[in-house]
Design a protein that fits this description.
The chain contains 15 helices and 16 strands. By secondary structure, the protein is of the alpha/beta class. About 4% of the residues have low confidence. Zinc ion (ZN) binds next to α9.
C-alpha cells in the first residue's frame, strides 16, 4: 500500500514537472517579421482600403491581424524620440537602445551588440535573413553586422560574409566595392562558402550557404503595385528560405523585412503603401502554411521598426474615400520612370495634352476622378514651369528624386481619399505587434522595441 501511495505521489510530481518543462519549451522555429515604417494606421488603412473596395466600411482581416496575441510597442532610440531604422533594427535584434545610425553597436559606439539571430545561431539553429530591399540595408544589417553607421554598406556586407548565417535573400547589395582596389563583396561571400544565386531560377538547396538576389547590385525588389508576373517577390524569397532552412533538422530563426512599406511612406504614396502591407500579408501565408504543419514548435512575431510619414486616416470630413486610390496604377517611383521616358520620347514637342493623357491613364484624373479648377491649374502650372520655362521641378524625398507633376498628382489623390501625411520622415507613433504560436502569450501589455530580444532568446 505504502509503495502504491509513493508511486502515485511520484507520478503526480513527475506530471507537474513535465508540464513545467513543456510550458518552458522554446520554439524550434522562430519567425521575426518587420514591416519597415508600418505604424498602426498603415495596417488599419490597408484593412479599410480592402473593405472599401468590396463596398464596406470596416476592417478586412489580413493574414496576421487575426493572430491571437496583439499589442503595441514604442520605438524611440537612445538619444532621439524619433528613431531611424538602424537604431530601431538594433533594438529589435539586440534588445538595447542605441544611437540613430548605429548598426549592432552600443550607444557610445564602443562595443558590438549581439543579435537574437547570432545567439540562436550559436545555439545551433539555422538562420535566414530575408528582405525586400538590399541585404546591406539597416534593418537586415542589425541582425548580423556591427558598424558605427548604416551608410557603411561595404563593411556591412563583409559582416554578412563573416556571419556564417545559412540564407540571405534580398534585392542585392548597394555597394559591391569600397574603391577600385577593394575586393568585390560577391568574391568575399564566395570565399566564405556562399553560393550566389541570381534570381529564383538559380536557387538550389544543394549548397552549404546561399545568397539569393534579384541582381548583384540592386536597391530593392519591385513594389507590389508595380510587379509583373515574372518579378521576384518577397513571398518567393520566403518560400526559398523555408526550403533551405529545413534541409537540416536544427530548427531555425528567420527574419523577414517588408522594407518597401517605409519607402512608399517616405514619398507619402498611400496606394503603394497599402499594396505593400497587403503583400506582406500575402507573404505571411507562406509562413502560416509552415506554422500549420508545426503549430506546437513555431513562434511567429510580426511588428514594425517605427512609423513613417505620420499617416492619418481622416482629414476633417467624418469619412474616408480610400477606394479612389484604385485609380493610381503604379507606384510614384515607377510613374516617375514612365513619365521621364514619355518626356524623353516627346522631346521638345511635348504638350499639355500629352501630360493630361498620362495623368488620366495613371491616376484616373478627369475621367474617373473629378479635379477642381484649382487642382487642374496647379498641375498645368507645373507643366509650364517644367516644359515651357525649363525650370527645375524635381522634388526630393528620402528614396525618390522625382517629378513634381507626379508627386503633386499623388498628393491630390491622397487628399481625395482623405488621407493625411504629417511629414516625409519617421514619427514616434506606436507600432503594432502580432504573435501566434509557442510562447506568443508573452506578447502582452504595452511593449518597447527592446523587449523582443529577451523574449526570443530566453530558455
Ligand atoms: Zn525610413
Amino acid at each position: 500500500m505504502k509503495y502504491i501511495k509513493l508511486f502515485i505521489i511520484g507520478a503526480i510530481a513527475c506530471s507537474i514537472f513535465c508540464q513545467c518543462i513543456s510550458n518552458n519549451k522554446s520554439p524550434k522555429y522562430v519567425f521575426f517579421i518587420i514591416g519597415d515604417g508600418m505604424g498602426v494606421n498603415q495596417v488599419l488603412g490597408t484593412q479599410m482600403y480592402i473593405a472599401e473596395k468590396e463596398g464596406k466600411i470596416g476592417r478586412k482581416e489580413l493574414s496576421f491581424t487575426s493572430f491571437p496575441q496583439t499589442t503595441i510597442a514604442s520605438t524611440y532610440s537612445q538619444y532621439n524620440a524619433v528613431t531611424c531604422s538602424a537604431a530601431s533594427g538594433t533594438a529589435l535584434a539586440c534588445g538595447e537602445k542605441t544611437k540613430n545610425g548605429a548598426i549592432g553597436m552600443d550607444s557610445l559606439l564602443s562595443k558590438p551588440l549581439f543579435s537574437v539571430a547570432q545567439k540562436l545561431r550559436q545555439q545551433g539553429k539555422n538562420v535566414g535573413i530575408v528582405t525586400s530591399v538590399s541585404i546591406d540595408h539597416a534593418t537586415p544589417a542589425a541582425f548580423y553586422a556591427h558598424q558605427p553607421h548604416r551608410s557603411m554598406y561595404y563593411d556591412i556586407a563583409l559582416d554578412a560574409a563573416k556571419s556564417d548565417f545559412d540564407f540571405f535573400g534580398g534585392a542585392g547589395f548597394l555597394q559591391l566595392q569600397k574603391d577600385t582596389n577593394s575586393v568585390n563583396v560577391l568574391t568575399i561571400l564566395q570565399d566564405s562558402n556562399y553560393f550566389i544565386a541570381k534570381g529564383i531560377e538559380e536557387y538550389n538547396r544543394n549548397h552549404e550557404k546561399i545568397v539569393l538576389l534579384q541582381d548583384f547590385e540592386k536597391e530593392s525588389l519591385d513594389f507590389a503595385i508595380d510587379r509583373e508576373n515574372q518579378d521576384l517577390s518577397l513571398s518567393n524569397l520566403v518560400s526559398s528560405a523555408l526550403d533551405f532552412l529545413t534541409k537540416e533538422d536544427n530548427g531555425f530563426f528567420l527574419m523577414i523585412e517588408g522594407g518597401l512599406i517605409d519607402w512608399a511612406c517616405h514619398s507619402n504614396d498611400a496606394a503603394t503603401v497599402f499594396a505593400e502591407v497587403e503583400d506582406l500579408s500575402n507573404t505571411m501565408n507562406e509562413v502560416l502554411r509552415f506554422y500549420h504543419q508545426h503549430p506546437d514548435e513555431t513562434l511567429i512575431i510580426l511588428t514594425a521598426d517605427h512609423e513613417t510619414g505620420g499617416l492619418s486616416l481622416g482629414t476633417g470630413d467624418y469619412q474616408l474615400n480610400l477606394s479612389v486610390l484604385q485609380n493610381q496604377k503604379k507606384s510614384a517611383y515607377k510613374l516617375n520612370e514612365m513619365f521621364n521616358q514619355m518626356a524623353k520620347e516627346k522631346g521638345e514637342n511635348i504638350c499639355w495634352e500629352d501630360v493630361k493623357t498620362f495623368l488620366e491613364d495613371n491616376f484616373g484624373f478627369w475621367k474617373n476622378v473629378e479635379l477642381t479648377k484649382e487642382e487642374t491649374n496647379e498641375l498645368r502650372n507645373i507643366f509650364e514651369k517644367r516644359f515651357l520655362l525649363h525650370q527645375n521641378t524635381q522634388q526630393q524625398t528620402l528614396y525618390l528624386n522625382g517629378e513634381q507633376l507626379i508627386s503633386q498628382s499623388v498628393k491630390i489623390l491622397n487628399k481625395k481619399a482623405n488621407i493625411g501625411w504629417s511629414s516625409y520622415g519617421h514619427s514616434a507613433g506606436f507600432v503594432p505587434v502580432f504573435a501566434i504560436g509557442l510562447g506568443a502569450e508573452k506578447i502582452q501589455g504595452i511593449m518597447d522595441n527592446t523587449d523582443f530580444y529577451q523574449l526570443l532568446t530566453e530558455n
